[in-house]
């Protein structure tokens, strides 16, 4: 990175509890690699069960007897808005840190900081607008419902968008008054640590935000199994999602799971390709394809298939992967394991004879040892092939032709996932019919993933998980309901 790169300030400071840093109880640290060159540039504390326990205790005290628990909704909202402003004020510093930690191009990292700030602003504004209801009941009764915080919420987030994921998960939890304990991903967690420090700086009371970095199987498992958390929110792989839900079941608490997808674009022949193609290509290239809602399947009406292939291929062949400061179309993937995973899909596709329609390139001059992969399109992908059914989490687009509307819907719904979908057509009625039949938590028509979507409820159907984040809906997820029944004369 360039000379402006900040020292990894938060990195070596350890575990964040009660607005202060402490070393891990284990005394161990975990190296942090820069995906751009594969070199270690920082270290984080390796939190384990005792650290998680200390964090949960701090959160419990904050909510039960601390200053945090006594704040009004308006006061909590004001703090959240202040944190959003602090993130915006530190956006360039945070973007540099995020880009170094995740490898993403600077323009993407900058956009991520705008979104991270927006989460806190949005939930700050929403904090004192979560109303209950009154319910007509028997004569002589007054009945009202009130949304109540859970108490202590646990949050396990992935490495793909650390700052955004942090805002997305704790923003609503804090807005309703919970105290939070976060286990960020070992592979990229420097921006959440820095944002926690900013939160202390704008006046968040002790114990509202506690972060225990470390390994998933240590810190993550300890958090999800902790007996004194009241709710857990998880974003990550379907496999770990099962472990989280099992741990939650043992403690009889609720959880939200956001487990990725294999999201389709359903494109009919009457689509305005000049508008659609750049959006579609971007949805699978953004963040090197490591986006849960990546539009990784392009389903095209058979009559238009060849033209769409030509247009998409032309764009894909120009894509270049490079370092964050080269600021090209995409960066490296997160780590050696993820590179191996993506290239494993490439190797198996070759064995099965799935045709490569086009590929981009890796820019000259990228450091050796970086985790770069070449963006690729495959097509026509056989319907049962793993490239048509499995999440790759890399810059890989699978193209499949369909015959008619019914076939398009069957194909769109033909995976285990159901996170997001795009329907492209100039025929509004047809687009609406298809959009209604697609099983996905969000369906776009003639657009996809627009504007960061902070305001828009988001989450999975089927194996993409359950529960909704983003938008006002997340306030319901992170709170419980109390019904008050009052008898009077
Ligand atoms: P992952 O293991 O599910 O990681 C997600 C989070 O869970 C991380 O914070 C991780 O910690 C933590 N974790 C791991 N094992 C845990 C356990 N036993 N108990 C509690 N927490 C645990 O995902 P990954 O290995 O990073 O990526 C694998 C695949 O998951 C990707 O290729 C992609 O397909 C999918 N994925 C999806 C999303 C999404 O946005 N839906 C995000 C990331 C990955 P550590 O990383 O520190 O171990
Ligand atoms: Mg890293």
Looking at this protein, list some descriptive labels.
16 helices; 2 domains; Aldehyde Dehydrogenase, Chain A, domain 1; disordered N terminus; binds NADP nicotinamide-adenine-dinucleotide phosphate; alpha/beta; 39% helix; binds magnesium ion; 489 residues; Aldehyde Dehydrogenase, Chain A, domain 2; 6-stranded mixed beta sheet; 7-stranded mixed beta sheet; single chain
Notes on the structure:
The protein folds into two domains: 15-259 and 468-483, Aldehyde Dehydrogenase, Chain A, domain 1; 264-453, Aldehyde Dehydrogenase, Chain A, domain 2 (3-Layer(aba) Sandwich). The longest helix has 21 residues, at 106-126. The chain starts with 14 loop residues before the first strand and ends with a strand. 39% of the residues lie in helices and 20% in strands. Mean pLDDT is 96; it is low at 1-10. The protein is built from 16 helices and 21 strands. With 489 residues, the protein is an alpha/beta fold. The structure holds NADP nicotinamide-adenine-dinucleotide phosphate and magnesium ion. NADP nicotinamide-adenine-dinucleotide phosphate binds at residues 156-160, 183, 185-187, 215-217, 220-221, 224, 235-237, 240, 243, 258-260, 292, 341, 391, 393.
